[in-house]
Amino acid sequence: MRGAARRGRFAARMMAAGMMAALASPGVSARAWADAPILVEQRPLSFAPLARKIVPAVVNIAVTQDVDEGPTKVKVPPALRGTPFEKQFRERMRSKREQMLGAGSGFIIDPSGVIVTNNHVVGAADKITVSLSDGTELQAKLVGSDELTDIAVIQVKTDKPLPFVTWGDSRKMDVGDWILAAGNPFGLGSSVTAGIISARGRDIGAGPFDDFLQLDAPINPGNSGGPSFDMRGQVVALNTAIVSPTGGSVGIGFGIPSEIVQPIVDQLRKSGHIDRGWLGVTLEDRPGGGVSIVGIDKPGPALQAGLKPGDLVNAVNGDHVDSARGLIRAVAAASPGSAVQLRIQRKGKAMDIAVVVGRRPEDNNG
């Protein structure tokens, strides 16, 4: 025993000596360790104050859709499968087969009852019921929706001002920043989850305007249409999609950045729809940067402006573009009938061409 103790003390002395030798070596110094900057100074001890602030403005959304009568099999929406509400849903449907139920989330952005959610939550609904955090249920109407970005606005009538949240600036959010996601997962009711922004600018093939924030906060079916907040309690993303082989959260969720959502919501509130600019071209990304025009629609704005297959587009209204998606988004942001200035290269020669954009047809990518 004494020998073992001596060997243990000897080993401890040797480890300490080795550490001191390492600190004394030219490559490592105690001062270098001490001078290394602290990259993460603090983390929240609790999200409770933030949750108390934002939860009253986050709503649960239930939708019904008329279906044909007949002895059809009861179809349970994915958001309710495996939850305590599945049995209740089946019993309700056996006695009332003319309606089909879906569930989602939303958030109030105006005390008068204006609510933002996803188009895929409410777009096909015949009846929309909104449940507030205090249990109040209100009927809502669709104000406007945009299928290409999956954004919708609904409105409830209320006799008193409702709690609401404000927009944050998603452009100021970095990979690694904390976010708090809120919504109605699996139809269970108001819930919050915490995580970070995992990546920016994700294209998941949902549409030509994909530019998602990737989030690792648990987001599940029923969270669609809910918000993600920064640590100030401002909305920086509209939770929209998940990647999951099981149907539940595996830590990969996607939200539309507020910089995209806010202007679309503003336009939907004004007109109920989105008018986008259109060039009438087929595009291809060019290795090394720029976008090549490989086809011209007849008739179309590009043909009328004199653009030709083989033209290389470098900028729109002075802003550089380096991908077909970037060019489509820049042109789509222009109002139909307005002019955009394209900087192109044709056979090695740079030139500017003004194009009066048209109105984007449905299901068009140029």
Automatic annotation (TrEMBL):
Residue ranges of every copy of the PDZ domain listed in the record: 275-348
Listed InterPro entries: Chloro_Bact_Ser_Proteases, PDZ, PDZ_sf, Peptidase_S1_PA, Peptidase_S1C
Span of the signal peptide: 1-30
Xref: Pfam families: PDZ_2, Trypsin_2
Iron as UniProt keyword: no
Record field: transmembrane: none
This protein's UniProt keywords: Hydrolase, Protease, Signal
Protein's name according to its UniProt entry: Trypsin-like peptidase domain-containing protein
